[in-house]
Amino acid sequence: MLDYIVEETLAGRKTELKATTIAMAVFGRGADFNQQSDPIVRLEARKLRRDLDTYYAGAGRDDPIRISIPKGHYIPKFTTQQTARPDGHLRPEDPGNTGKRIPKPDTGFGLRNALIAIGSILVVAAVLVWTAQPEQHTPIGTTVSAGKVAILVEDFEARAGDDLVSLVASGLTHEIAAALIRFPDVAAHLTPDRTARGSELVAPEGKPPETKFAVTGNVWREGSKILIRAELIRRADLKVLWSERFTMGAKGQSITGIQDAISSKIASAVGQQYGYALRDIRTSQPAKPNDPGLRGFACVSSAQIYRRTYHRDEYQAVRECLEATVRDDPDYSRAWAMLAYLRNDAARFGHEKELSRDEAFDLAREAAMRAIDLDPQDTDALQAMSHVEQYAGRLERSIDFAHQAVEVNPNDPAALANLAIRYAIAGRFSEAVPVMNRAIDRSVAPPPFYYHVLAADHLIKKEWPDMLAAAERASADGWSFGQAMLAIAHNQLSNDRAAQEALKKMAELDPLLSDDPRTWLESHSMHAALVEAVVTGLSEVRTAVTE
Q1: Which end of the chain is more exposed for a tag (fewer CB within 10 A), N or C?
Q2: How far apart are CA 60 and CA 379, in angstroms?
Q3: Are 319 and 342 a contacting pair, CB within 8 Å?
Q4: Does the structure show a pLDDT above 70 at 331?
Q5: Where do the record's region annotations for Disordered lie (predicted)?
Q6: What is the helix, strand, coil percentage profile of the chain, to 5?
Q7: pTM (predicted TM-score)
Q8: Beta bridge partners of 80
Q9: How do residues 186-241 score in pLDDT, each as one tens digit?
Q10: Where does residue 369 rank: exposed (0-12), middle (13-18), buried (19+ CB within 10 A)?
């Protein structure tokens, strides 16, 4: 597809790049092609955009020309990139900065040939991105490098000689690897024989890289159904940590559509912050490892655990650990991103008494900007910046950063939940609720605060039984807002004793929310409609309790 759209554009026929022409020329569809019933071009374009982003974030970062495909179109866009000199500094884009005119590239090779060459190596480069070690100086054999968990994605076995089954199985391995590398804690690897089929890169002496986990599975067909069994195995003892069967209807489904759907689900279960791989790492690693890299990884993991519940008594130790990590390794973007969260909490929860609110937020912004500078594609860095922008009162910018995180990894429930929360704070519940439901559906173990959005939506709509169900899940995080939701729901359902208990627990957790809920809610930049609903609801609870 990339070859075709580049060729057609350079030949001056870009106006003919429509879904129908691409379907016929690239995917063998007939003149009766209907993009509504057969979305292959749209799906492949989406995959191609992801692959291009992955390539230019890694192996192609120094290419002089960048190819992109704007959303909603199939006409490629060509732009020049800043490339690095041998000394590691960027070449200036403005010739005026050097006092000399920068000569144009030799046109003997030509823009056309350069673009075609880039396109032809994209598949190879994409394989390199997910099979190469995260650090050039890190030898193969390191399980956790630069804060990443190494996972081997093995070939999926086709149980029968069915052509469709074979095609699904053959592409599923790469699709899972491509989905896994979007999770910042994961480094995905392929087996040497599969890697060799896609590139020149193989492990020394043909040995696979040392990985802690393996994703494996098989594909078969029963009537019109395609079935996929996937497993996550701990390689040290071959223990199966997770196993699930997926069923897809073969009729009316493209191979790409099946692979996309299944690889997304598998990657979400395996690679997310609270998923099966990282959960096992957290329980099996020593509390105070001697290796500095492992210490940093353990600190980031501790921060992720803290962010499930925001327990005040865990805050100080986690923050000190992260600050020590960035001192030891100032280029560890993940640690800076998590530190931005902690510093932001210092401001919004008042954890750091010696700092003013503005000073604490400035430190949070500094950490988030450092994380983004180090890795603009880190989903936690983008989410951290969305938090910072929210508390600065810039909700649209906050939502923009949250959107970027989802675009980087649409399979990450944490990124989806972050976007949903930003929508809810802006009062856009019609957008917030479906996104949060997607986050919950993709989560192995949804953190309680995911349900705050659902409880608030039911509060606005006065759907009291549904609000109670959501509030009971939300209140498990030990955060005062969940208890506020629980108190209001119980009161509306005449559960007087339960409402009183929730109100008391809220006051113990957060005296400010109890004494002055309006100020507390507005300090979190919450939308006026939500502020009024919560203030009114808590007032009614107090009146009922007093009576």
Answers
A1: C
A2: 20
A3: yes
A4: yes
A5: 80-105
A6: 60, 10, 30
A7: 0.66
A8: 65
A9: 888 887 654 433 333 333 444 556 788 999 999 998 888 899 999 999 998 999 99
A10: middle
